[in-house]
Amino acid sequence: MPTTVLIGAQWGDEGKGKVTDHLSETADVVVRYQGGNNAGHTIVVGDERFALTLIPSGVLYPQVTPVIGNGCVIDPSVLVKEMAELDSRGIDPSRLRISGNAHLIMPYHRKLDAVMERFLGQQQIGTTKRGIGPAYMDKYSRHGIRVQDLFDPKIFRQKLEIALKDKNKILTKVYNSLPIDPEPIAEEYLGYADKLRDHVTDTSLLLFEAHQAGKQIIFEGAQGTLLDIDHGTYPFVTSSNPTAGGATTGSGIGPKAIDRVIGVAKAYITRVGTGPFPTELHDETGARMVELGGEFGTVTGRRRRCGWLDLVALRYATRVNGLTELALTKLDILSSFDTLKVAVAYDSLGERFDEFPRQQRILYNCNPVYEELPGWNTDISGVRLYDDLPGEARQYIEYVEKAIGIPVTTIGVGPARDATVERTA
Ligand code: GDP
Ligand code: IMO
Ligand code: MG
């Protein structure tokens, strides 16, 4: 049984939720390994729409054990709400397993996220304001509070007091904000302990044993390659490693356990928040993509910036993740365009770049070099077999495959669970 890592190959919102759900039909364990409730993964089943932020998309299948790994940051107020909501919709969240080593997002992280962004003014990242960056800052400065601390009230209060001594100075003296009182936080957070206790376990051991027993494990990345703290368009990134390597550190499984690495990419590209975006369209075509693709954020409702498929960035994502295959989503959204453009290189500061530039200044000045491909002008949302796709759609897919050197094995033709074309390489 293969162990699969599934990652976003662009700037997030590629359709990871839908593809994970699709693969989960035969899975035993589905794991989130980084990020927190900055993610918004949408799954459409019949008339129902689920927007999951923390709980892995595999939860919709009763045989799946969903796992939140140590690399995640957890806002417990959001987690208990998400569990209750699933429960109310007939999906049993009792199978959820959570690493005690995952860090907690605290109310002061959310507050700091907001004031830090405000202070950046024009340079702001456009974060989701969920406290993600400040929570990871505390993790790496070793001032973080972890899920396991919820079960020892004395230690929890001690850690909270130490954290707030520091944070309140920063909030009041640096950001001119009001200080935060520890007591209401302690009361609120210790109240979550009973709700989470039965879910917390050694998830690294759980995964090791599942792997040994030949179970099928899927790692569901959040965000995307270009938002990775190391490999993305820094500083306009998130504070974790969505790339495939993050699956091992963020879950405690060895790299040799991984057999497949699936990249998920839209047939075009989108970005929420600020930062460089070489193929961004500011014109009518971009506006059409927003409208046809329903490109508004699942978490914050923000309008997503849209552009033509960027093969330079996709080749980069293929490399840094070691992708073995690609899932190309939202192909149906391109159905009404007469001509499709794909970026095959960039021009920047008088030079041509075939590889994704690692220097911010070069990236900011990139103008895409486009190739044009014919559109298909036919509704493909009902197609389920590769050979039933119009020739131009197949040409587009095969062009992408050739450019990135790996097969496109799954094609998305609609948001619904079954709106998928499978293709064996
Ligand atoms: P994620 O964060 O990567 O899981 O992606 P999001 O859920 O934030 O955004 C993807 C959006 O596209 C969601 O509204 C999905 O329902 C939708 N979607 C996913 N795949 C397809 C597809 O192949 N076609 C269409 N039309 N919509 C899709
Ligand atoms: P999913 O998993 C798209 C973006 C934010 C911002 C930057 C940093 O649904 O693909 P953060 O709150 O993480 O500190 O914000 O990252 N961002 C996402 N964009 N999809 C996401 O998740 C994102 N999670 C964060 O818009 O630009
Ligand atoms: Mg999303």
Strand content: 15-25%
Number of domains: 3
- List unreliable stretches of 5+ residues: none
Q: Tally the beta strands.
A: 20
Give the name of the CATH superfamily of the largest domain. Answer: Adenylosuccinate Synthetase, subunit A, domain 1
Q: What is CATH's topology name of the largest domain?
A: Adenylosuccinate Synthetase, Chain A, domain 1
Strand ordering within the main sheet = 9-7-5-2-10-1-11-15-19-20
Query: How confident is the prediction overall: mean pLDDT?
Result: 97
Helix content: 25-40%
First-to-last CA distance: 18 Å
> Structural class of the secondary structure composition?
alpha/beta
Report Rg: 21 Å
What are the distinct ligands in this entry? guanosine-5'-diphosphate, 6-O-phosphoryl inosine monophosphate, magnesium ion
